[in-house]
Amino acid sequence: MAVVAKIAPSMLSSDFANLASEAERMLRFGADWLHMDIMALCPQPDNRSSSHREAYLDCHLMVTNPLDYVEPLAKAGASGFTFHVEVAKDYWQDLVHQIKVKGMRPGVALKPGTPVEEVEGENPVEMVLVMTVEPGFGGQKFMPETMDKVRALRKKYPSLDIEVDGGLGPSTIDMAASAGANCIVAGSSVFGAKEPANVISILRKSVRDAQQSS
Ligand SMILES: O=C(CO)[C@H](O)[C@H](O)COP(=O)(O)O
Ligand SMILES: [Fe+2]
């Protein structure tokens, strides 16, 4: 069975002064997940409004000490916990275990220069995030050369969630979708659009079309 398309607007591009209503707006527009880029700020348990308590929070940890975030993020209601393998090379499998124990879905992120071999191991992750820009901020240019990694992962793991993050929008989605990505993070292309719902549906359609023609 094909993996399911998940469209995840990146809240990094949202209006931070109105985070709750921005989240609600995206869910209304058809977002499957809310992508939360965590650098220094960490959501506290009481910060979730009741209206989006059920939303899937796809947390992308861009921190050097992901282990310190397992407990607080679990308490805050994180759904997915994706950390960068580059900062946890010696203990990433143990970290995956701890994330699972806390009831979150573990994911491992790869910077553009990190090979897929870094995430092969005995304690399987539920998602691999292939960064399609250097991590750090929104609005950067998509790097097509990262698609080789998406293709290699999809070939080896037909039912793994493969996420792409950085520079995704209507003009780049077909490259990612045809390479085999099914979880699509999009910040500026969604939040900067006149009609975000249209962009979300274009992204989803591209993933579904690519799956049907593969
Ligand atoms: O992890 C990220 C940057 O490193 C983000 O998810 C970023 O917000 C993506 O934004 P855009 O879609 O505008 O490239
Ligand atoms: Fe991200």
How would you describe this structure to a colleague?
The protein is of the alpha/beta class. The protein has a single domain (6-212), classed as TIM Barrel. The chain is 30% helix and 19% strand. It has seven helices and eight strands, in the order βαββαβαββαβαβαα. The protein has helices at residues 19-28, 70-76, 92-101, 147-156, 173-179, 188-191, 196-212, and strands at residues 6-9, 33-38, 56-61, 80-84, 105-110, 127-131, 161-165, 183-186. It has an eight-stranded parallel sheet with strand order 1-8-7-6-5-4-3-2. Strand 3 (56-61), helix 2 (70-76) and strand 4 form a beta-alpha-beta unit. Helix 5 runs parallel beside helix 7. The two termini are 12 Å apart. The model has no long low-confidence stretch (mean pLDDT 93). The site of fe (ii) ion has 6 residues, from strand 2.
What's the quick description here?
Helices cover 30% and strands 19% of the residues. The protein is built from seven helices and eight strands. The chain has helices spanning 19-28, 70-76, 92-101, 147-156, 173-179, 188-191, 196-212; strands spanning 6-9, 33-38, 56-61, 80-84, 105-110, 127-131, 161-165, 183-186.
Q: Which parts are unreliable, with pLDDT below 50 for 5 consecutive residues or more?
A: none
- Helix share, percent: 25-40%
Main pleated sheet? 8 strands, parallel
Tally of domains: 1
Helix and strand element order: EHEEHEHEEHEHEHH
Oligomer: single chain
Globular, elongated, flat, extended or rod-shaped: what is the shape? Answer: globular
- CATH structural class: Alpha Beta
Strand order of the largest sheet: 1-8-7-6-5-4-3-2
- CATH topology: the name is TIM Barrel
| The CATH superfamily title | Aldolase class I
Strand percentage, roughly? 15-25%
